[in-house]
Amino acid sequence: MQPWLGEEEVAAVAEVIRSGWVAQGPKVAAFESAFASSQQAAYAVAVSNCTTALHLALVVAGIGPGDDVVVPSFSFVATANAPVYVGARTVFADVDATTGNLTPDTIAAAVTERTRAVIAADQGGVPLDLAALRAFCDPRGIVVIEDAACGAGSTAYGRPVGAGAEIAAWSFHPRKLLTTGEGGMLTTSRPEWADRARRLREHAMSVSAADRHASVLAPPESYDEVGFNYRMTDLQAAVGIVQLGRLPELVTRRRQLAKGYAAAIDELPGLRMVADPEWGTTNFQSCWVEVAPEHPLDREGLLVHLADAGISARRGIMAAHQHPAHAGRAGVPLPVTEHLTASTLILPVFHELTDGEQDRVIEALRSSATGERR
């Protein structure tokens, strides 16, 4: 993975530096407005990363000690960590074998009497069926937090992912299509949650730093609860605004590259590439491939085969419950999660990957299907 950055981002950062306002300020506000509009969200709150967005989402939703939060184990560990930050209990659910996402059935198997929230990820950019999840959770008083870390540019039912979410968290890490270096966003349909998240990200100050610094005689502030320092800087937001303008082109190129991979992989035995679900389109943030038993090489063997050809692929998405930090939290069997994490790998895919470089990857995959060594 390589981010797509250029002179426009350089110029945007230089403009902020010349302005003298480099912390959270007018560029952050402009980025929030632009991102909310692009994702069809009512409110957007910029934060330091997606993990802090997940933390704030749980806090403003009222989740705390004594509550259970159902999450996929098949996700980066931050998804499982967030409930722990608020004193809740992480409860793992299995995922769909095709999409790698939670479903109403997998959530139902993990729900307890204390379940008050579900964190559901658009894994690798594959849009989850949020409408189906909310149809199960809403009547039970369970808030669904969409972990859209990988989701910018994906769609569900003809709208951007997250558009139908009561609350969602986003990542702008360099592995994502849209990057600000580090950085994240919380979007929500509820104004009171947005207002509280804005205060909490800034130490829960009653008067924002931007308002204080814009005043000759700053108004007094108070701190009515314990807050956090989860702010984004104007330097990051300036990059984010440029990147947001690039998003349609980024998605188009990713999907073009994925189409090339899919055409080749469809002809190879024992390999299956992730694809669009029937309800949406993926941005192919991660182009992951499942290696079945009928393939001549297992997942580890295929990784070695690609490395021998000078191609750096990666193991598939982790299973958090298999790591010491979350050992013993799998209250239900997770066979699909364990299968996918052991049998998938992620192919190189980024905006400036050339057709020739992709051809090299495809040729290595083809030679692996014949058992050839390179």
From TrEMBL:
Molecular-function GO terms, alphabetical: pyridoxal phosphate binding; transaminase activity
Active site, renumbered: K176 (proton acceptor)
Organism: Nocardioides currus
GO biological process, one term: polysaccharide biosynthetic process
Modified-residue entries (N6-(pyridoxal phosphate)lysine), positions: K176
Keyword list, A-Z: Aminotransferase, Pyridoxal phosphate, Transferase
Cofactor: pyridoxal 5'-phosphate
UniProt-listed InterPro entries: DegT/StrS_aminotransferase (IPR000653), PyrdxlP-dep_Trfase (IPR015424), PyrdxlP-dep_Trfase_major (IPR015421), PyrdxlP-dep_Trfase_small (IPR015422)
PANTHER family: DTDP-4-AMINO-4,6-DIDEOXYGALACTOSE TRANSAMINASE, TRANSAMINASE
Family per record: Belongs to the DegT/DnrJ/EryC1 family.
Protein name: Glutamine--scyllo-inositol aminotransferase
